[in-house]
Amino acid sequence: MINKHIIYAKDLSLERSGRNIFCSLNFSLDSSESIIIKGKNGSGKTSLLRCIAGFYPITSGKLLWYGESILPAYYSEKPLVSWLGHFDAIKGSLTVRENLVFYKEIWSVNKNVFMKAIQKFSFEKFLDCPASWLSAGEKRRLSLLRLSFCPAKVWILDEPSTYLDKDNKEILISIINEHVNSGGSIICATHENFNLPNAKEYSLS
Length: 205
Prior knowledge:
single chain
């Protein structure tokens, strides 16, 4: 039986409103691998991530997940893809605890794993605060905390280090490393010089 890539892209192109966003891209992603996408603002990094995640239809080329042209929602009865974009997907009317417990329950996350993630990001003191009280940096950290216990196979990250200071960028790198070293995969658009495990770098111009 032929081992199929998690993601396989051949001659991938996207056009929007008569403008070529990117064209003729070729890449593949397997377990325990990372893809880093770089480029100037407006070069198409976010658009490429949105095509990979199935939010945008490609104009031409081939984009396969496990050899199929339809993105599967689940992998071995767990979510296949986790998306972290420019918006933090946090409910401001809920407390920090309520935001986190919602995902803990739907993902069936072990309590010890859940509490360890909270401690890693030093969020114990925020748990009973309304999420709307958090600063931009704290909201980004909350999103990363949630990501850290997400069971999805592939994490798609769009500028995940936005609003993070040096210490929290190091925590971000550590949870990415843990995910890849445990068999997960990463696709990340960033301006940072991340040193990720088993990484392939692509530059859009």
